[in-house]
Amino acid sequence: MSDPERGAYTPHTDEPLAFDARRPVRGSRPFPLTLIISGVVLLTLIVAIALIYRGGVRAPNEAPQPVGEPAGQMKGPAPLDAQPADPAAGLQIYRSEGQAEEGATPNFAPPPEEPQPRPAPSTAPVQSAGLPPAQTAPTTPAAPPPAPTKAPPAAAPPPAPAKVVTPPAATTAAPAASGGAAAVQIGAFSSAALADKGWNDAARIAPGAAAGKGKRVEQIERDGKTLFRTSVTGFASRSEAQAFCDALKGAGKSCFVK
Question: Distance of CA 94 to CAs 43, 87, 91, 97, 98, Å?
């Protein structure tokens, strides 16, 4: 009776399989052919390795085996007519420098010169001539003194004017070169020449702003040193002086507005 749920590839389960590999055929075990083939191959490899080792590898104290024919047996005596005889063999064409004639006296180089002693300085007397006597200039007779002249009678002195006493004028400070209340101090220099150079450099940096401005140099003492404080004067306003100082700072100079 057929089962409708069985597929085309579903094995039969109703009956036992016709062949079972686990059971021996006719009651005997299968012959291990693969094991025999593996043993033969292994034995062949062992024999081959033993032959190669014995034939190619020598013992530590064993001499290497000669290969080919020895070189001593290959070489033989050269034939007589292999090379032509040298016709100049045994002839002496020139005499060697090393062969000296028997009984000849060797010619040695002269020995070096010995230094001669320095001659002694001569002690001849030096003749000294005496100085001639000094010649005195002839004396000239002194001129007679001039005759005294009579001075004219002195005139009567005029009467002295009356002295007018005037009070001393009051000292005033020197005015600045140009008018203006603001000034820019450009530095304190160690000499007056450097102070003048500093003022000229400042005027060269900003010639438009320094046009018509004055120069003031004050000598001061600081820490035992004499300094010359230099300022550019004559600015109409503090803003104008600050603009001039900013131009100097832009050129790498130092200044401030007073």
Answer: 83, 16, 9, 9, 12
